[in-house]
Amino acid sequence: MKKLHILGIIIIAVAIGVIFVSLKNTSTYADFAEAFSNPDKEYHVVGRLDKNQPQVYDPKVNPDEFLFSMVDNKGITKQVVLHKSKPQDFEKSEQIVLIGKMQGDNFHANDILMKCPSKYNDGKQQIN
Amino acid sequence: MTNITYVGEHLWAGHLGNGFVVLALIAALLSCVTYFLSVSDGSYLKLARFSFNLHSFSVFGKAGTLFYMLFNHYFEYQYVWQHSNTDMNMKYIMSCFWEGQEGSFLLWTFWNVVLGLLLKRQLKNGDWEIPVMVIFALVQVFLASMILGIYVGDYKIGSNPFLLLREHPDFSNMPFVQNENYLAKLNGRGLNPLLMNYWMTIHPPTLFLGFASTLIPFAFAIAALWNGKYSEWQKVALPWTYFGILVLGIGVLMGGAWAYEALSFGGFWAWDPVENSSLVPWLVLVAAGHTMIINKNKGGSLFTTHFLAIGAFLLVLYSTFLTRSGVLGNASVHAFTDLGMTGQLVLYVLTFIFISVALLIKESLFKTSYVVLSLLLLAFALVYGYARVTLMVWISASAIITFVSYYLYFPKEKDEEDLFSREFWMFLGSLLLILSALIITYFTSIPVINKLFGTEYAPPKIPVYNSWIVPFAILVMLTIGAAQFLKYKTTDRRKFLMRISYSFGIALLFGLVCSIPLYFMEMHTGNSDTWELISYALLLTTGLFAAIANADYFLLVLKGKVSKSGAAIAHIGFALVLLGALISTSKKVVLSKNTSDKKVSALGADFDEKRSILLTQGDTLPMGPYLITYTGKKREGINVYFYVDYLKKSAQGKPEFDFTLVPHVQDNPRMGRAPEPATKHYLNRDIYTHVTYADLNIDTTKNKANAYSSAKNFIGHVGDTIFSSNAIIVIDSLRSNLSETEYKKNDSFLEVTAVLRCVDVKGKNYFAYPKYIIQNNVVIPKEDIVDKLGLKLVFWKINPDQGSVEITLSERLSNAKDFIVMEAYVFPYINILWLGCLVMAMGTIIAIRERIRKFSVKQN
């Protein structure tokens, strides 16, 4: 298997090399401050919904735009423009992960992941 | 605690179940030890077989008891309470069994036992019975301990499905525990409604049977490392490996079909960690199956075969760890919750790596050093901590030792493969599969890497996976096409090139011609990456090549003889799966974007993507080639159904009804709202829709009749208009009981009436006369209601300086039309994918039959 071994080792080396190179462009978890300092890079920002700020979703104007505010884990609040329809059960979410970039003073997210408490809490409160 | 005698509990069931749990563990352990002892002393063999049967009996007993408890609603047991209730349809009772972790471990153990009994019978009195069954029984010891649920010190081993609700740590201090009659009014929490479908009945058993079948090549491979007979086991294990490829493959694709039909991922494959972690063992098992064939026909590739056979099973364990330890956290939508078994799962994976490496070393001093080193590191980690560093040291040491012992002890091929030999291309194909498996594993493991190295990488998105996997798929397709026409050892080059050039020529022609409209035309639009489009065109061409070359081989070389053509047919199927996936994904059309002509975000192309359409009840909107109307909604139980009619232009240009799609949203009490898609299937395309935003409340008109929306204020002059949702309101004139001068003289009473003319959509006039009254300096507005239009108007302010008036408008809630926000996609030619699945399964079944036939011919 000489020929194949050399071939295999080359392929593996190239793959590992490319993976390490590509890590630089990989989105990372961050807070708003970091996303703000690097506005061209995509980040995953973890936080929770700021319930004191208004939420605007007017599908008659644009069904793919939803505005709200999120507090990140460092306590900084930013207005978020989500370029998607308003997720179902949004108010119930316990934790939010936004995927997007900072542009101007707002965070623009392409996608959102939500953690809802009911899914994890397994309904302990249901008895009695 | 005082002694309470609870009413109505069936304590015998729990005792029985726990008896089986303990017996299963002890019998597996006994079987493992006695099989091990019978290597040197044959008198233990009887006891070994008996204890494996006893273990099997206990596993069936456990499963039977749990099923009986579910069937009879023994809610005093936590597992039964958590996963079933009395209201549910009994046809889902099987799904309750494996909804939870304990039940799914039990299902896995069950399949292992079924396969173990079959294998034990097949191998009886042969060379392989003893070593294989030692490994088999050892795995069963580990699996049986996963549902043990006992505490050793502070550490919990396993999680037990026969635990009483009132003894469960989460519930044991709740008030109901004090009530001796708590069972009387207790109903279960029930199966998650999202899982109440036939997929949940068939997908987990198939997938777990696939997982279980990876144990057979694993057990053989370890046994071979142990007794040094590296190639003899492969022909015995080959049909089983094919069986694993078949069942695990079906299980994985079933998961894709489930996601496509019932979940709103927007496709059949989302590279979700849970999907990936069952795909990766499949890829490795397929590679193992191919290196085993090489070995059978020509010898060699022994190390790779052992490495892969062991790897497939370890990857199943690793995927269990990934999906059940909670390590994925934010990365997956449907991982299990953590039951505190992470340590146990990691320990099992490491134990089997340890056993494999230790058996690979043949020299006893070297072997002892490795064992001592491992134990020292374990002790170090237990005493001083630094688990991560220790783990990395140990893994690196094991990897180095593996390669050293490979060079020292493992039989190797002397001569090199010819470039024009089948084994070269088969091996290359396997290598490519392994590499893609490694890449997928790497991406899926990013949460684990973050934990180990303290990094903060986010899991990659779907396009990242696609761009990595497509190049590998292109190369794999090339090897699949070329390998069939090559012979083992060496092939006449000219003949080979002649034979292959037909399929290659046709595929190239077809691929390039089809790529012009599919991919090349798009390059000028600049909407997509040129390299991406080229890679799609290449995959299309090589995929066609793989399918055509194998069809050619099947028809012309094998002369259509089905029993010999398992491989060719399975490869055609695999090529079709990739072609279907490629076309339906790369040419997926977002139908719902065409009509949303509203403002495009001013922030550049990044966020222009339009995917949703707003449908107001009764309005007809163009969407792609259709005109669509949202006609209404209906609630059935927890599901709210939204009816959307699709109309098409007839030959005369008149819209004609075509079909109705009813996407629904499940108002799931446990998980929140879950949209479920509705799809119209055509032979050449699917129209796939799901509702992303909607009001799920269906109020009867009765309680809405007198409710009004919150008021909106308008400031205007005489002659101005106010718009409501159903009318235009003109301020015709203002009339007063007094002139301005009169009012100033005597400020006792002023009444100003606004004459408002409301014109409805049909042009009919209605009048409203709201009044603005000042009496003794107090403003008392008097509202007026236009009942026919459901408008409430309040004239509440006069601004004498500007000469303007302020009027508020509220509309009856029933005026506001219901609306939904929906996404719609076309998946072209997705049926090629499903057809490919069937063809691949058929081919694999034919290959299994042929292997079994050959094997039994040889034995006679």
Q: Could you explain the architecture of this structure?
A:
The complex is a heterodimer of chains A (128) and B (860). Chain A is built from 3 helices and 6 strands, in the order αβαβββββα. Chain A is α/β, with parallel strands linked by helices and 128 residues long. A 5-stranded mixed β-barrel of chain A has the order 2-3-4-6-5. Chain B folds into 5 domains: 1-192; 197-349 and 415-460, no CATH class; 361-413; 607-695 and 819-828, no CATH class; 708-810, no CATH class. In chain B, helix 18 (493-518) crosses helix 19. Chain B has 23 helices and 23 strands. With 860 residues, chain B is an alpha+beta fold. The two termini of chain B are 69 Å apart. In chain B, the strands form 5 sheets. In chain B, strands 5, 6, 7, 8, 9 and 10 form a 6-stranded antiparallel sheet that branches. Chains A and B meet through helix 1, strand 1, strand 2, strand 5 and strand 6 of A and helix 15, strand 4, strand 10 and strand 23 of B.
Question: What's the CATH superfamily of chain A, by name?
Answer: Nucleic acid-binding proteins
Distance between the termini of chain B: 69 Å
Average pLDDT number of chain A = 79
Count of β-strands of chain B: 23
Low-confidence parts of chain B lasting 5 or more residues at pLDDT below 50?
Answer: 594-605
What's the helix and strand layout?
The complex is a heterodimer of chains A (128) and B (860).
Chain A: H1 2-23, E1 28-30, H2 32-37, E2 43-49, E3 66-72, E4 77-82, E5 95-103, E6 106-115, H3 117-121
Parallel strand pairs in A: 1-2, 4-6
Antiparallel strand pairs in A: 2-3, 2-5, 3-4, 5-6
Chain B: H1 11-37, H2 45-71, H3 78-83, H4 93-97, H5 101-123, H6 129-145, E1 150-152, E2 155-157, H7 198-213, H8 215-227, H9 234-262, H10 273-298, H11 302-324, H12 342-360, H13 364-384, H14 387-409, H15 422-444, H16 446-453, H17 462-483, H18 493-518, H19 530-557, H20 566-586, E3 589-590, E4 612-616, E5 620-623, E6 626-636, E7 639-649, E8 655-661, E9 664-668, E10 672-676, E11 678-681, E12 685-694, H21 701-704, E13 712-716, E14 721-723, E15 727-736, H22 740-745, E16 749-760, E17 765-768, E18 771-775, E19 778-782, E20 784-786, E21 791-799, E22 804-811, E23 819-828, H23 830-859
Antiparallel strand pairs in B: 1-2, 3-23, 4-23, 5-6, 6-7, 7-8, 7-9, 9-10, 11-12, 12-23, 13-22, 14-15, 15-16, 16-17, 16-18, 18-19, 20-21, 21-22
Helix pairs in contact in B: 1-2, 1-6, 2-5, 5-6, 5-7, 6-8, 7-9, 8-11, 9-10, 9-23, 10-11, 10-15, 11-12, 12-14, 13-14, 15-17, 17-19, 18-19, 19-20, 20-23
